[in-house]
Amino acid sequence: MPPRMLARHALHTRRHAGGARSRTLATAAAAAAVDPAPPHRPPPPPSRSASPPTTGLTSELSSLKSSLFHLLGSSHPSLDAVAKYYFQAEGKHLRPMLVLLMAQATNGLGGAGWNMMRERQAEDERMGRGVDASLTSVEGVLNDWNPEQMGMEGEADLVFAEPYLVGSTPSRRTQPPPKTQSPPSPLSTTANSPPILSTQRRLASITEMIHVASLLHDDVIDNSPLRRGSPSAPQQFSNKLSILAGDFLLGRASVALARLGSREVVELLATVIANLVEGEVMQMRSSPTSSSSTLKATAGPSAEAFEIYMRKTYLKTASLMAKSARASVILGGCGAPDDSPQGASAWRDGMSAKEVREGEVVKDIAYAYGRNLGIAFQLIDDLLDFLPPSPTLGKPGLGADLSLGLTTAPVLYAWRSNPSLGPLIARKYAEEGDVQMVRDLVGRSDGLEKTRELAIRFATEARRAVERLPESEGREELVGLTEKVVQRVA
Fold it and tell me: What highest taxon heads this organism's lineage (predicted)?
C-alpha cells in the first residue's frame, strides 16, 4: 500500500475523529519496512522503564466487575454464586485491557466507518436502546431472566404450567426492557484520541466472560484445588456446578455478542470458543513422543512436536487475544462493512474502497498484535511453572503443569540436550520422582532461557506490529504491554 495514501487517510480520519495524531499509520509502516525483523534474529530485551499499561483505563477497568455482574444474574442462587465467583477476585484483566487499549489506539482510523459507528451509538442513546436491548421483540420467547437487569420474578411471571398460544399476549414479561441498564462508564478519551464506544466496552466484558468460562472448565479437568491462592470453583461448589456455570457464562456471552450488531465479530468470538475446546483436547491427547516424525523417545523433540505445542498455545491462549483485538477494531468501523443494515449505511455514507483496504490493514495489525502477545504471555506462564510459587502473579509453580503430565517449551528445549528426558515425557511424569527429576534437568539446561528468548521474540513482533499504527496514548500502552508480559521473569 503506498505510504502517501495511508498518510492522507490517517490525517483525514483524525480530523473527523476529533484531532490528528502526530505520527501517521504510513510513517510508522514505512519505518518498520526500512528495518524489518529477520525471522530468526534474537530481538533485544525489552526496556525496564515501561509504566503499567493502565494509565488511561483506570475508570474503565474499575467498572468492569459491575458490568460483568450486570450480565450474569440468575434466578437460581447456586448458579448465580458460582457464575460470579471468579470475578470476585482482583485479576490482571489482561484480555479486556487489550480490547480497550486497541480501541483507544485505532478508533477514528475507519473514516466513514468510524463516523457511522459513532452516529449509530448516538441514535441508540436517543432511542433508549443500547447493548442490553433485545433483538427478539416478542415477549415470552427468550425466557432468559436476569434479576440484575429485570428484578426478581413475581407470581405474574410464573406461566409455564399453561400452553404457549400463538398470537396471544403472554402474561409473562420474559424479556422486557431492562429495569437497570449496564453501569455507565466514562468515555475514555484524551485530546488526541477518540472515545471508546459502548460496543467495544461490552466486547471487553464478553472477552473476560469467555476467559473465565474456560477457567471454570479447566479447573474441573485439571482437578485444581486452588485458583490464585483461593479455593477453586470445583472445590468450593462442585464439579457439576462449575461446568454448568462455565456453560452459563458462554451462553450469556453469546447473547451479549449477538447484540453488538456485527456478524463478523460474532464469527470471530464463536470460533474462539471452538478453539478453546480444540486446544484442550489437543493438550489431553497429544504427546511429543507420539508424533509420526518422532522415531523414539530418546531422539529429542521433532519439529512437529514443537509445532503441536505452539498450535495448542495459540488455541488455548492466543486465539482469544488475537480475535478480540481484531473484533475491537471492527466495532470501531475499520474494514469492509458486512451486509447488515448498518453496513449498507456505511456504503451509502461514502465509505470508499481505499478506506476499506486501509481498514483491513488495521484489522490485520490488531490480530497480529494479539496473536503474538498471547503466545509470548503463555510461554512466560509455562516458564513460571518451573519457578517458586508467586502470590503476586497467582501462579502455583513448582511443576504444576508437570504434575498434570503436560510438556511445555522449557522441557522441549531441555530435551534437545538431555535425551534421558524422553522416557519421562513419554509416560507423562507418572512415576514417583519424575516431576522433581524433570525440574532438575530443566533447571540445569538452557530450557528456561530459550523459552524466555522465544517469548521475547513473539513480544517484539507484537510491538513491531502495533508500532505501525499512528502515535497515540493507546498505542504506547500497547507497546508497554509487550514489555510487561515478558518482565514477569526479568
Answer: Eukaryota
Q: What cell does 266 get?
A: 460474532
Contact 444, 475 (CB under 8 A): no
3-state SS, 262-294, equals CHHHHHHHHHHHHHHHHHHHHHHHCCCCCCCCC
Strand partners, 190: 193
- Is residue 321 in some structural domain? yes
Picking from 187, 186, 197, the residue whose alpha carbon sits closest to that of residue 115 is: 197
Return the closest-CA partner of residue 106 out of 13, 199, 5.
13
The Cα 64–Cα 376 span in angstroms is: 25
Backbone angles phi, psi at 249, to 5 degrees: -60, -45
pLDDT for 128: 82
What residue numbers bound the domain in which 216 lies?
Answer: 61-132+181-489
SS3 label, residue 413: helix
pLDDT tens digit string along 96-151?
Answer: 999 999 999 999 999 999 999 999 999 988 888 889 888 887 777 888 888 888 77
Cβ atoms 217, 246 nearer than 8 A: yes
pTM: 0.84
Instruction: Give the residue from 329, 401, 279 showing the smallest Cα distance to 98.
Output: 329
Whole-Å CA distances, 51 to 46, 48, 94: 12, 9, 15
The answer to the question of residue 46 being in a domain is no
| Host H or E run for residue 230 | strand 230-231
| H or E segment to which residue 49 belongs | none
User: pLDDT at position 22, please?
Assistant: 33
Is-contact 455 380, C-beta < 8 A?
yes
Please give the tally of structural domains in the chain.
Answer: 1
pLDDT classification of 301: cutoffs 50, 70, 90: confident
One-character DSSP codes across 456-490: HHHHHHHHHHHTTSPP-HHHHHHHHHHHHHHGGG-
Strand spans (E) along 241-377: none
163 domain residue, yes or no = no
| Cell representation of residue 411 | 522441557
230: phi then psi, degrees, rounded to nearest 5: -115, 160
| Backbone angles phi and psi of 193, in degrees to 5 | -140, 140
Q: What are phi and psi of 75, to 5 degrees?
A: -70, -15
Q: At what angle do helices 447-466 and 473-486 cross, to 10 degrees?
A: 170
What is the full DSSP assignment across 326-363? HHHHHHTT-S---SSHHHHHHHHTT--HHHHHHHHHHH
